[in-house]
Design goal:
alpha+beta; seven-stranded mixed beta sheet; 6 helices; 7 strands; 30% helix; globular
Amino acid sequence: MRLTDPKPSSFESELSHENDPPQENAQILEKISPPGNIRRAKLFDASPITRCVKAAYSGYIARMDRTPAPMLHNYLNKILTCQVFVKEQGQEVIGVLILLPQYRSMLLENVAVHPKAQGQGFGRQLLQLAELETRRQGFQSIELYTNVCMKENIELYRQLGYSETDRKLIQGYDRVFMTKYLP
């Protein structure tokens, strides 16, 4: 675990490539979005993902008085160690979803949409994919954490059925932990 990517011990992962989505997952993705718009990230996506995430989180710097943690991550490493999906518009990455299977649940590590593409339902599409992947991989819940300053995100998660489970200060970041149990 990297120091710039802290997680409480209940969220520590047991990484396994056994949970990687199979090729038939393309059929699931087609139900969410037109074919080709959401796909599994490849190594060459690391830079476009970084640009998308930085754009998505840059508006929070002043509010948080520090750089949001997702802007500090190494996305090449995330592609290698997590389940990373990208939402494309044309040839541009405009959305990112990062999932990490845990012992008892799926961790929704990050969902980000480029500011120019926000408000068009792309974030909700990525969150729907997170739920589909969580169920497909045999988990009954999704866990996430966000910053207490990201009030609109906390409200959106509540509207989508997530419940707050904890608040902790971790390496200077005020985190709000949430869980959604899937039927």
